From TrEMBL:
PROSITE patterns in the record: UMUC
Keyword ATP-binding carried by entry: no
Active site: E117
Protein name per UniProt: DNA polymerase IV
Chief location category: cytoplasm
UniProt gene name: dinB
Pfam families linked to this entry: IMS, IMS_C, IMS_HHH
Region (Disordered): 405-430
GO terms for MF: DNA-directed DNA polymerase activity
Species the sequence originates in: Paenibacillus rhizoplanae
Compartmental location: Cytoplasm
CDD domains (UniProt xref): PolY_Pol_IV_kappa
Enzyme Commission number, as recorded: 2.7.7.7
Positions of the record's site feature: Substrate discrimination: Y24
Amino acid sequence: MQSVDQYYPASGRVILHVDMNAFYCSVHEAEDPEQYKGKATAVAGSVEARRGIIVTCSYAARRLGISTGMQVQKALRICPSLMLIKPDFHLYRKYSNAFMQIAYSYTPLLEAVSIDECYLDITGSRQFGTPPEIAEAIQRRILEELGLPCSIGIAPNKLLAKIASDLKKPSGISVLRLRDVPTVLWDKPCNEMFGIGGKTAEKLRKLGIYSIGQLAAADEAMLVGHFGVMGAWLKRAGNGIDHGIVNPQREQSKSIGHTTTLPHDVVGLAEARPILLNLSDQVARRLRKQGLVAAGVQLTIRTPDMKTITRSRQLEAPTESAEDIYKVACDQFARHWKGDKPVRLLGVTLQGLMPKEESAIQLDLFDYERQPKKESLNKAMDMLRNKFGENAVLTAGMLSDSHSARLRNHKERGTSLQKDNLGGADKDID
């Protein structure tokens, strides 16, 4: 009979990666098994208009050819009986908290990396049994208590635990040791290694590196020369080596807000618009910097006699976009403030914050096609501001009428503005 101790190394760690299977669809199935159990389902916004994209789908739908990121219209052509479900983020968070509480009961070293997955360091949890026994207990309890399936990877580090949890889905438990890496991973293409995306894999192919085994054998200096510090990580990853630790979950910001006291009273939405756009841009930038999205927007208005009102609105889906935040702020201003009443202070606060990877940002078809460009533009603008200051990039809407006029005059004369030239930035980015 094998002892518990042999599973726990004298040095090193034992890591579990718990990955919920088709989480959003599984939650709806657990809530209403009579309607959804075993059915081809998909979570997607814009259900009534049959636009947008598939956020996730059940395994029954996947077997029919439906996949995450597919356009809803295409999915319905493949499977006309596909059951579309609108996202319910409150419900998902409830189930997420519940399954993580089960996992937490086996170790306080829990790192939640998204709404449906977490790492556990169970090196000090031998009182609960061997790692496979702990994994089986967690998996069984999540299924029995919550009605949710999950896959679990067991490994000496986070990288291999993540890879192991993907080996058997749904409802699998896999062990991946360092000595298993050559036989399990080395014949696979590089893009199947967690952390290596399509662009990196393409660069590796141009260097003659097609498989994880070839990556493991590659010269580290050469990799560093082409990929910088990431080159050393690539070499380690190819050999299954990862020094990352499991960081217990930290409390995140509950809100992000910014207010500005105006140099003179503002009257009406037309005068408020450039200020609201500036505020929306600033809070959106802080949001992206923390890797978060917001589910609600609050507008703050203060009058010259110091009377303050706040008005909040929930969004249809979480966002990191200044454009979305600005639209809501303007709408709240128009709805709740008379045009002839002066305003001395304005503020925009983002509420209902969550990590971006936990959210299912729903896009219609047009936004889905534009999203990569929008994200690239946001990253470029954020980078410029980090380097040159907040005023390095301004949109025309942030400027006063006189400043906008000067901008147009400069452009007509063919001169360049060092700061207020978003048009120039667009050209450079493209």
